[in-house]
Amino acid sequence: MSVTDSTARPRRLPLQGTPNFRDMGGYLSTDGRRVKWGYLFRSGQLSNLSASDQALLGELGLDVVCDFRRTEEQQRDPSRLPEPGPRVVSLPITPGSNDSFLDQASSHWQADRRLMFDFMLDINRDFALQQGEIYACMFDLLLQSEDTRMLVHCAAGKDRTGFAAAIILLALGVSRELVMEDYLLSAHYFHPAREIERLRDKYGMEELETEALLPVLEVHPEYLQAAFDAIDAEFASLEDYLDRHLGVDADKRALLRSRYLS
Q1: Packing angle between helix 132-143 and helix 250-260, nearest 10 degrees?
Q2: Mean pLDDT, the chain, integer
Q3: Which neighbouring-strand residues pair with 28?
Q4: 154 assigned to active site
């Protein structure tokens, strides 16, 4: 049965202020166990949470929240978390090509859909190969204590967070096929047309056509696949990548699986 089947346990938590808040539990690992429900979560920004959202968030018993938004994003749209709340760790990600590309795009440069699509491929390669220190910190936080309940998030919960969720699930032995299914679920909850004006305002892109901007807000399998292909090209195996690039060796992977699989 597909994890996207309507009869599967719902992944999205019914938060009003963030549409892409999901539980990563339930996925089948290669050893026959499944990822535990209620321990690993992913979402977009948390700055618009209602009082009822905060109450629901409090019931999850989160220990750590990893915020991948850039520092200026975090300052402009601070998270609204329950009190007392989880530990929030700032892990800002700014892909190497991000600022220069968007500066060109916002300076009346006539970017088109293909260029923006290719930009997103580059961004995902950057996640895999250039942001190792950030994602290694995420794993360190996850391993600090037994049964840590963690939320990883960025602005939309689909790109920086999408890669974070992917490598967590891969480290737990979930297949790439299922990881890709989880990645693509963001398309069900995050609606690009509703975010266009926010993106224009955020990056000063008033001159660009909507069609050119959409790839930045969309979810495509090619995006995450670009990250996978970059890993495959640079490392002997996924295990080699996790070990040498992220510091998650065989012992740490075994510990993660003992804690988060059942």
Answers
A1: 50
A2: 88
A3: 34
A4: yes
How confident is the model over 61-107, as pLDDT tens digits?
Answer: 999 999 999 999 999 999 999 988 899 999 999 875 455 555 555 54
Task: Assess whether pLDDT exceeds 50 at residue 7.
Answer: no
Residue located via tokens 């850039």:
70
The catalytic position among 102, 154, 178, 219 is 154
Q: Which pTM was predicted? A: 0.91
Nearest-5° Cα angle at 175, 170 to 179: 70
Q: Looking at the predicted structure, is the pLDDT value of residue 10 above 80?
A: no
Give the model confidence (pLDDT) of 29-48 as tens digits: 999 999 999 999 999 999 99
Span 22-260 CATH architecture? Alpha-Beta Complex (3.90)
Strands (E), 134-224: 150-153
Q: 107 vs 101, 153, 211, CA distance in Å?
A: 10, 29, 17
For the residues 196-220, what does the mean pLDDT come to? 73
Beta strand ranges found along the chain (DSSP E)? 22-23, 40-43, 64-67, 87-90, 150-153
Structural domain boundaries of the chain? 22-260
Torsion angle of alpha carbons 184, 45, 20, 167, nearest 10°? 40
65 contacts: CB under 8 Å, gap ≥ 6: 46, 79, 81, 86, 87, 88, 89, 150, 151, 152, 153
